[in-house]
Amino acid sequence: MSWRLPPRWVRRVVLAPAVVLAAVLLVPTSLLLVVFLLGALTWLVPGKLRIPRIAWMASFYVLWDAAVILAAFGLWIGSGFGVYVHRPAFTRAHYRLADRMLVVLFWQVRWTLRLDIEVVDADLGVVLTGTPVVVASRHAGPGDSFILVHALLSWFDRAPRIVLKDTLQWDPAIDILLNRLPAQFVTPRGSRRAGAAGGSDAVGELARDLGPRDALLIFPEGGNVTPRRRLARIDALRKAGRFRLAADAEQMRNVMAPHSGGILSALDEAPQAGVVFVAHTGLDKLVTVADIWRELPMDKRIVMKGWSVPPDEVPREPAAQEEWLFASWLRIDEWISANEVPTATGHHVPPVGPDAPAAHLAPAPDAPADAPQS
After folding, report:
1. 346 torsion bin: left (phi>0), alpha (psi -120 to 50), beta (else)
2. What is the pLDDT of residues 136-188, one digit of tens each?
3. Among 56, 84, 145, 273, who pairs with 39 as Cys (CB 3.0-4.6 Å)?
4. What beta strand segments (E) does 115-243 contain?
5. Is residue 161 a contact partner of residue 180, using CB atoms and an 8 Å limit?
6. Cα separation of 274 and 130, whole Å?
7. How far apart are CA 109 and CA 150, in angstroms?
8. pTM here?
């Protein structure tokens, strides 16, 4: 079930001011002090202390959201009350705002939830310097889009573009900030109005004018992996007569068959772009609210790995691109199986040593000679 997104004027006039008002009411009250002390206690005292952690993170997020809204309001005034808000200078200013606010948010996440993010062999800035990239990531658990945007902005000096579900606009900070940056909010097919743009069209539009520092971030799976979705995706491939791709999809245990429309659309519109495939572990087991509650404090490490493909090594024929995409997704699946992150149930994690290379992305594997044909 999803709440129907209200009109933009409601989100601007009602939701955004409501978040700021909540922050204003929260700051001077003793409640914030109590919640802060409880949050500090979770770091000093062993044990899960789930309720204090959740209370502090919820309070912090309200304050963080309000700070983003107020800063964005200041930029709106400075842009001539929105007249020049989409000019390059203000676009850069909004990227800087997003970068700094995400740094603050993840500092707090590390402190309260004891969540570390480690990037293994994934320096986009060295491998594909001066080249636009399409970043295709597996989708798992809450917040992986936040993590990847944070990584692109703060660690790799990229200007991310992202396609998101329209329901994320319920969050006023996301709604205001990303509607001023190159981003597309897409309505799921079942709720889409007749004639509305689909995900592939949105990806293609964002990719059309990618610059040297731009990174288009997409999640080809389209959602978190569930047994029902995985089987439905395999069944859809079979019904379409794509039996070899369905056989590939059956081999994937940690991910599900990717939708090829978005990435093919991006590569068609931006042939000058390289591609980076991203795998990550650590959020896989966090799908439901019950999962998140059970894992608190997370005390876990999110490990990210990337494989880069220069533009001249990207297949250009649609059929070859789809086979290449599935072969790359199989590699992601294999890497996840070999690098499971511990959860409350005690999964083993192979160590990632301090000498693990971090200067470049490992090249993506070529599709095998006997890659299945669609």
Report:
1. left
2. 999 876 678 888 899 899 888 899 999 888 888 999 999 999 999 999 888 77
3. 56
4. 115-120, 133-137, 159-165, 183-186, 214-218
5. no
6. 10
7. 13
8. 0.78
